[in-house]
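RETRY 2/3 - previous attempt timed out on the joint model. Re-submitting the same 1164-residue input unchanged.
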Amino acid sequence: MNRIEILREYMKKCGVSACVIPTSDPHLSEYVPEHYKLRQWVSGFTGSAGTLVVTEEEGGLWTDGRYYIQAEKELNGSGIKLYKASEPDCIKIHEYLKEKLKSGDSVGVDGRLFSKKELDAIIEKLRKCDVNINTEFTPDVIWEDRPPMPLGKAFVLSEEYCGETVSKKVENIRTLMKKEGFTHYLATLPESVMWLLNIRGNDIKCTPVMLSYLLMSQNEIFLYAPKEKINDSVNKYLEDNNVTICDYKNIITDLGKINENAFLAADFSLCNYNLINVLKCAFKDKKDFIYNIKCIRTQKEIDNIKRAYIKENIALTKSFYEIYHSENIDECEVCDIIEKNRRMQDGYISPSFDTIAAYGANAAMMHYCSEKESCAKIGKNGLLLIDTGGQYYEGTTDTTRTLVLGEITEEQKENLTLVLKGNIALLMAVFPDGTLGRDIDALARMPLWEKGLDYRCSTGHGVGYLLGVHEGPQRLSIKSQEKLCEMMTITDEPGVYVENEYGIRIENHLCVKKYMKTEYGSFLCFEVLNYCPIGTEGIIASLLDERQRQWLNNYNENCKKLLKPFLTKEEYEWLKTYIMKI
Amino acid sequence: MNRIEILREYMKKCGVSACVIPTSDPHLSEYVPEHYKLRQWVSGFTGSAGTLVVTEEEGGLWTDGRYYIQAEKELNGSGIKLYKASEPDCIKIHEYLKEKLKSGDSVGVDGRLFSKKELDAIIEKLRKCDVNINTEFTPDVIWEDRPPMPLGKAFVLSEEYCGETVSKKVENIRTLMKKEGFTHYLATLPESVMWLLNIRGNDIKCTPVMLSYLLMSQNEIFLYAPKEKINDSVNKYLEDNNVTICDYKNIITDLGKINENAFLAADFSLCNYNLINVLKCAFKDKKDFIYNIKCIRTQKEIDNIKRAYIKENIALTKSFYEIYHSENIDECEVCDIIEKNRRMQDGYISPSFDTIAAYGANAAMMHYCSEKESCAKIGKNGLLLIDTGGQYYEGTTDTTRTLVLGEITEEQKENLTLVLKGNIALLMAVFPDGTLGRDIDALARMPLWEKGLDYRCSTGHGVGYLLGVHEGPQRLSIKSQEKLCEMMTITDEPGVYVENEYGIRIENHLCVKKYMKTEYGSFLCFEVLNYCPIGTEGIIASLLDERQRQWLNNYNENCKKLLKPFLTKEEYEWLKTYIMKI
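RETRY 2/3 succeeded.
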């Protein structure tokens, strides 16, 4: 009996005609721990985003444009149909359920894996056509050999790596709570908890967080986390900061016991359905206080991030040298080379996501992940896309470079240059304070649009500080209604993806900075945080504007200057030929 | 007794403590006929947009960024305070009223001069603080020597000027009505009525419309218009098209008599409050059918508009020649020169708005209108901004050029070039189908933002077809949520306005065209409709990108080619020096 059949049997037992299994954990983490990868276990699709819907007869997987090619491959033969959720005419899951179910049917979902907001909306939509929702449906019980809950140890960030003290952060949050009359505040995103307490964990691969909840009032701070993750020194540190450690499992019952005079702030888009439904006190949906503060970097954090990037770029440049001087290696070995060079850097902790080293047609899959058994050999010619990042005590990095190997086609050269052109056009932008991510997104795409090309994803995302490599609310996308504020950081990563042929992406990491203030208001601009050489082989200089050409030459000059002290003579000589003045 | 005092006396008589007088007529026209310019009569402010609020003690005028400088001047000494409505912290009128009035007070408004939607919102907001609204307040009765209702004659557009036949247009609308079950449709915007019936009128200066309403069902079309405006041939034409002419004054009573089984579509943002409130049948707020169709040009209309622009640009080029070769003329004489040259063109009807000829500091007022007594002499040096347009049988034109006279400062040269750079960057844009006006607005502003400059208005607006020079829904503005669709036309007019010093604007008229269709979707681009020479004196070539420089040279070459047959030898020789290759 295959896994879908096992699931159907369980559905039958629970009396549900359909079920929805998202990619999620009770903290609604972006990257979920193995323990919670039920959707992957059932469907076989390994991408980091997607929702599986199973009915008595059919199975469907909804995922976004980054994963179409990969999902198509991985779902092949499973009987599960791919739904391309980024396409405007793709059927919505609730509409699909309406079509497939009859009045009186039940849909099973696990309330812990959906935000209050999302599940309320689904319930409302299905109620209209008389379909019930069973939110106590917990299909994870069918999972044999399920990986255990992660048990990574927490650690304290030493002062030099903290943008701000815990007491100052707590004070700021309490002021915000008071302003709106909240007596309590619930933070459920591990990133928020880590940020507030200046600690980190080790529960999620590539993201140094401890799965935990935080409940605070004007006098007390309760951290809900498994005691075994907290050693004596962390325990002492938390005590010194007036944090009471509570049993992770008690969050639901404790929330239910908050007294009726309390008024609790919780973000319905971030808190899972069950946490909110247990509340007996007054509460209000409130954009998470921490979420909207932690995206603004302090100058100390920015200085640290630049230090992290020096290390990262030493590792990457050495890796590029090695890749260009190796023969017959495969994509996984490229990842290994990068990891080896990173490990030689002080303060390196782990990758910030699985390195994408994608040669040739593999790079057309935006979030391709090479595996030893199936990965491609790096050929003598063509393009090698490397998207990689590290967690350093000084911050989180994320860089993409597309390496030109031997001969590439004229089309590839042109598209490589247009991607670079879009990347530079965006990072040179100046814009008034108040500009949304969507307002300047077109700058990065215009050179591609002129050739009838585009990429089916955002242009850029926020990056956490020794936290998740994707962090909101800032985003560069036609859908982003969020302002770009001073001291936010964001990536700039346009690309071209030609199915079955090749992929190109160039990604830099930017910080929003003051530009000038005039009678017309305050203007902002970007500062580039990372100096990672951009190879000039394959770049058609005449397609760049004069200022873009100058920018590229200056940027590469800076790379040389910054990296020289850390490279061998051979590496440096090679680097000089890799980034020629154009 | 001054006019505000007369108004206050009338307010007292009506028992209202405050009144709101908008710039409006019962059709909510953008340019209101003299008969309805009560706000101007009371306040002295002559701008085309603004709302006057008068209380027992105070007077305030709300207007937008285009008019700050002008309003400041014209309101000086009137006791009426200027409220800068485009500023984010400007108090809203309803908030102002809440502050000034006490519970139980009444505000007087003329229901005919507000859209149903707008007045409903105001009533709702004021009701919350117990302030009543008297919608039967008609302060126009205090206006002595009020200009009469306009009585311009209607005329039929001959076939060569019509984008589509009346019967085809009517058929399309009826199909749309049927789709949503509407039995009746009310059009109150004169532009919509004119467009549908392929007739024009002469009631509003610069806008060839007849003030009229149209009510249609699946079988009948009723045109509400004063009979004296319709001569025998128009009458015959309308009869042939199955249009029944009704007395203009009967619209309210006739709407009240529509039978109860009917279901009427009316746009609450376009129909005045009284028209909707009289209805006894079922009705629904519905985005005006015609409004959303008439913005899409047919190819025949585009071809006609290009013909209109050839004529317009002959007139403008001859005018520029004359201006450069005149001595000691003033701004009004500049307007006269343009009008004289236009009158020599076949098919010219009238200006499409009052020409702005603004020399030096006057050009800093975006919508400056020179008057003979006060207008400036054109000096030997400096900038002369000319924004002008004409109504031709082939369509409506709108062009701005900023003429460099003698010496200008380095700052002026730089800003002139940056405005041109923004203008070109926008018109060279390529963008996917579905792009909103807001998504590419930044392109036109970026060169200015880089210098900390900006302009406090939209980048561009739609233009009617032998109708209003401003036409929606399309708009280039950070506020525009409207798509740029194929065959819409729109202006491109960035600018720099330095108070008390000078103003620069360059405006072209663009049509949205197909660019290409690829696997990434349909892409659109702009085609320039007008070829009016852009003087190269004062342009700093090095500030333009290579492609922008080439565009300018090509554009000016085209101007030369198109205009040569119509210019005298002297004019053409001058033109060659005016637009040098850069």
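The mean pLDDT of chain B is 96. Closing ticket.
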